Amino acid sequence: MNSNTSLQDKSTLEDLRKEACEYFKQRKFLKALALFEEILKNSQHSPDDQHITSTWDFSSDKCGQENFNELVKVLYRNSALTSLDLSWNKLGSVEGKALADVLCKNSTLTSLNLNNNWIGSEGGKALADALCKNSTLTSLNLCHNNLGSEGRKNISRCTLQELHADYFGS
């Protein structure tokens, strides 16, 4: 490979990174994912590219309920994402059930933070059922989700290496 090709590849990668990050900021997750996947196919991608593709932080309402459905679509087809932070996003039982459905099919996510949402007992039961089928998720934060005693019972059946579940609610 000559140096002009190498410089062109680096420039193209940088353009792809900028475009992917812009789509990410706009919450156009499917477009961002496609670009991140393209970046990772290139042999010159950096460790930062791998980290950006595998660790997504949408804490403090960065995802928003209006973007949640697109995020779920991404989770169904993403094979690089290993850590997802959805804490403080006002997610309810409907979103909890949608995440549960994803967890039944996703085999790469190892860490999920759902701290301070309102998933409730129904969402908690759906998550617990999904976690019994998902062997890759090892860390889950369900603190402050108003899961109640039924949620506590359901979640206790799961085999996780790390579970944060302070304050299940009444």
UniProtKB/TrEMBL annotation:
Transmembrane domains' residue ranges: none
UniProt xrefs under Pfam families: LRR_6
Main location, first listed in the record: cytoplasm
Assigned keywords, A-Z: Cytoplasm, Cytoskeleton
Gene3D superfamilies: Ribonuclease Inhibitor (3.80.10.10)
Subcellular localization, as worded in the UniProt entry: Cytoplasm, Cytoskeleton
InterPro entries (UniProt xref): DRC5 (IPR052410), Leu-rich_rpt (IPR001611), LRR_dom_sf (IPR032675)
Cellular component per GO, a single term: cytoskeleton
Name of the protein in question: Uncharacterized protein
Record organism: Gigaspora rosea
